[in-house]
Design goal:
This protein is an alpha/beta fold. The protein is built from 14 helices and 22 strands.
Length: about 550
């Protein structure tokens, strides 16, 4: 393995230096090309990286690649110790499989189900514990009375284990087609609020077929959280003991007291858009025992910067950010994460090379964030442990999922929330340099506005730092094994990266930092702004 890493690094350093040597040809923006973006992406999103999960050895190699390239372009390390890496401690856990089980207890007998063969766990973070309780079957597990669908109606859920089907409604069903499908992904939240002690998902017919055909077991991935009392969302996690369990159809049949064929029929009803009847399961209960193995591990952000050319402005900064992690591999499939977010990660490499040539007045930090898919770990850690003062960061530009079918269009998120100057600047710069169609509908009240909370720009805005997320919008291959370099639109990536370059250079060369003039309560950058409740401002439509 060590020799493999050395070979990889050796083969990468040389191309990086060749590109640096050629960077003097043409103007800075012209150095951003679809071909170079493709070369980087075909490497970072290759199968050998196994989907760049956090934490993983493959993600660590990816971080080394990014750092080597940044250094070859002439960027400097940001961290005080002269490193390109901001190390982040994690508290990780795995299921101790031999001592983890589910026991089905009825009047006549007991039956034990094993982790891996019979069931798995969905939880992102995990604590050991035991849950006992009666069962209740809740169909799709959907509580949406305003949408004409309520599997909770008339059911006593409190302190019970809810069993639901993990099937999808038809794509043209009203609950999905009007973008209110977000409520389908909030089923666990509804169950928690109604007092369920755990939720068990009966896997879809499609997954059951694959499990049978390929003799799969449920996986036992590393789960974790950032080891810091100051990281939002990682202290006292009350959800870590609300177990989200997945079961095979044979296990579901035993728990519900019906046949496997009847389980398949229930799945078909949901896929046809039909509601199935919720019901109690009298005379039986479950004992769920989860045991874990814990350890401390590390992951890391990659941070590099171009020093500003103006002696009066070089101690002020803009930050380009992109997360370089993805979701790993599951059930024999590699989730390469080419668009999400290999696209933004390699865009930052091209931006760094161009910015060195441009010589901005302010300093420009390039931040490749880890753990975004786990809950914005890297960007949260950056803003809670900032390598430069908050009040010296003029703006943040986030690139996440920047490829798509339309090469002339890009969506914007967050740019209207703190600074009218940023909103105006983005539009003006685009009109001059790029002429892309700017999609602002994610800033409008309604279901689409939920994206405001869903990427690495959000922690910056929470700290009063103006930020814009350049984003293709929902893309069908994202979080699927089909998100590969072969399904990327490289011309669009080039267009978006050039727009990001022009926006950043304009901010870096302004006489003054971007003002905060939108939210009356937020007029100074800093951690004190995290008390502001953005959920009351952003109209998600829920």
């Amino acid at each position: 393995m060590k020799n493999l890493k050395l070979i990889i690094l050796f083969t990468l350093i040389i191309p990086g230096r060749l590109m640096l040597a050629q960077s003097g040809q043409g103007n800075a923006m012209g150095s951003i090309t679809a071909s170079e973006l493709k070369n980087h992406l075909c490497f970072l999103a290759a199968d050998e990286f196994m989907g760049r999960d956090t934490p993983s050895e493959e993600l660590k190699i990816a971080s080394r690649y990014l750092a080597v390239q940044a250094e070859s372009y002439g960027l400097q390390p940001v961290m005080p110790d002269g490193s390109f890496f901001q190390e982040i401690p994690l508290r990780t856990s795995r299921v101790a499989e031999k001592s983890t089980y589910i026991m089905l207890i009825d009047k006549a007998e007991q039956e034990a189900f094993r982790y891996g063969a019979d069931f798995g766990l969905r939880n992102r973070s995990l604590e050991a514990g035991k849950v006992s309780g009666e069962m209740v079957f809740l169909g799709l597990g959907l509580h949406a009375p305003d949408k004409g669908w309520d599997d909770f109606d008339g059911m006593d859920i409190k302190n019970k284990v809810a069993i639901i089907l993990d099937e999808s409604l038809p794509s043209d069903h009203p609950i999905r087609s009007d973008m209110s499908g977000m409520i389908l992904r909030r089923k666990s939240d509804s169950l928690v609020s109604y007092g369920a002690s755990a939720v068990i998902y009966i896997i879809s017919e499609e997954r059951e077929t694959i499990f049978k055909k390929k003799n799969y077991l449920f996986e036992n991935p590393v789960r974790g959280s950032v080891l810091s009392d100051t990281i939002l969302g990682n202290t006292g996690n009350s959800r870590s003991k609300f177990y989200e369990i997945e079961i095979r159809h044979s296990v579901a049949a035993e728990m519900l007291g019906i046949s496997i064929e009847e389980i398949a029929e229930l799945c078909k009803q949901i896929k046809n858009g039909e509601q199935v009847q919720s019901r109690d399961i009298p005379g039986s209960k479950l004992d769920i025992q989860i045991t874990t193995e814990k350890k401390i591990e590390f992951t890391r952000n990659v941070l590099a910067y171009v020093e500003g050319s103006d002696p009066n402005l070089k101690d002020e900064f803009i930050v380009y950010g992109a997360h370089y992690d993805h979701v790993g591999a599951r059930e024999g499939e590699i989730y390469n994460g080419a668009n999400d977010n290999g696209s933004g990660s390699v865009a930052l490499l091209e931006l760094a090379e161009a910015m060195v040539e441009a010589g901005p007045k302010r300093s420009v930090i390039f931040a490749w964030f880890t753990g975004e898919e786990k809950g914005l770990w890297g960007s949260e850690y950056f803003v809670h442990h900032p390598p430069v003062p908050y009040d010296k960061i003029s703006a943040h530009i986030n690139l996440d999922v920047i490829s798509g079918d339309d090469p002339e269009s890009i969506a914007l998120v967050g740019h209207t929330r703190l600074s009218t100057a940023l909103d105006e600047l983005v539009t003006r710069v685009n009109n001059v340099c790029c002429g892309m169609d700017l999609d602002n509908h994610f800033e409008e009240p309604g279901p689409s506005s939920r994206f405001f909370f869903m990427s690495d720009h959000y922690p910056f805005i929470q700290h009063g730092i103006p930020s814009v997320w350049l984003f293709n919008g929902p893309e069908p291959n994202v979080h699927r094994p089909t998100d590969t370099p072969g399904n990327i639109h490289y011309e669009k990536m080039e267009n978006v990266t050039r727009l990001a370059f022009s926006i950043g250079l304009e901010i870096a060369n302004r006489d003054k930092m971007l003002p905060l003039d939108v939210v009356p309560e937020i007029t100074v950058r800093g951690a004190h702004n995290t008390d502001f409740d953005w959920s009351k401002v952003i109209g998600t439509g829920y």
